[in-house]
Amino acid sequence: MPKAISAKTYTIAGTSRDPKTNIRTYRFANGKLNVRRNMLSHFKHTAIKLIELPKPMNKTQAMAWMIGQGINARLPTRAANKKKKSPIMLKAELLAAKSAKIREAKAAKKAAPAEPVVEATAA
Fold first, then answer.
1. Is 36 exposed, middle or buried (0-12, 13-18, 19+ CB in 10 A)?
2. Contact 104, 68 (CB under 8 A)
3. How is the chain split into domains, by residue range?
């Protein structure tokens, strides 16, 4: 049975390249950007890209937001099978796909020309 998704929220999210696996993974934190960046640097992470989220989000929402921004990575995992996607990652991808479809529909609706108004004439 998959783990329950935590209700804990984060204000900072981003990615870094893990020195042990050389895989780009998602990172989440609260507090100050420079503190988290320094901690990752201390542990020899490279390609550190952290940003403040527009509002506090849980991991699923934050990943969906980052995927929507074109920021892709993997979830850090200690599992033996690292090729299998976690339930959190699958849910985030689904949420990102849904919000992309909604944005496309809104853009198409705005771009569609307005229908001309036809006035009825009395005979």
1. buried
2. no
3. 10-104
C-alpha distance from residue 34 to each of 9, 26, 30, 31, 49 (Å): 19, 17, 11, 9, 11
pLDDT, tens only, 30-49:
999 999 999 999 999 999 99
Q: What is the mean pLDDT of the chain?
A: 80
Secondary structure of the chain in HEC code, one letter for each residue? CCCCCCCCCEEEEEEEECCCCCCEEEEEECCCHHHHHHHHHHCCCEEEEEEEEEEEECHHHHHHHHHHCCCCCECCCCCCCCCCCCHHHHHHHHHHHHHHHHHHHHHHHHHCCCCCCCCCCCC
